[in-house]
Amino acid sequence: MKKFAFALMALLAFTFSLKAQQFVSTDPANRNVILEEFTGRGCGYCTDGHRIANEIMANNPGRVWAINIHAGGYAQTSYPNMITPDGNTIHGGFSVDGYPSGVVNRSTAAAQNRGAWAGIANTQMNQVSECNIGGMVILNPETRVATITVEVYYTGNSTVDQNYLTIAMLQDSILGSQADYGNYNPTQWVGNLYSHMHVLRDVITESAWGDPISPTTQGTLITRTYEYVVPENIGSPNGVDVDLDNIFFLAWVSERQQGNAYRPILTGCELDMVQGVDEPIYPIFKSIKQVGGATCTHSKDIEINVQNIGTDVLTSMTFVVEMEGQSKTINWNGVLPQYAVEKVYATVNAPFGVHPVTITLTEANGEPQQKMSTGTVNCLEWADLEIENEEENLRLEIMQDKFGNHITWEITTSEGTVLGSGGPYTMLAAGTGTQLHIEHVTVPAFECVKFTIHDQMGNGICCSYGHGYYIVKDSQGNVIFGDENDGEFGEEASHLISVRGPQPQVEVGETEVGNVSGNHADFVAYLEFEGYPDEVGFECSKVTSSDILIIPGFLNEFRMILASTDELEPSSLYMVKAYAKVNDETFYGEEMTFQTTSDGVNEFESSLKLYPNPTKGVLNIQGEGMTRIEVYNTVGQRVMTQNADGNKTQIDTESLNSGMYIIRIYAKDGSMLNRTFSVAR
Question: Per the CATH hierarchy, to which homologous superfamily does domain 2-275 belong?
Answer without folding.
Answer: Immunoglobulins (2.60.40.10)
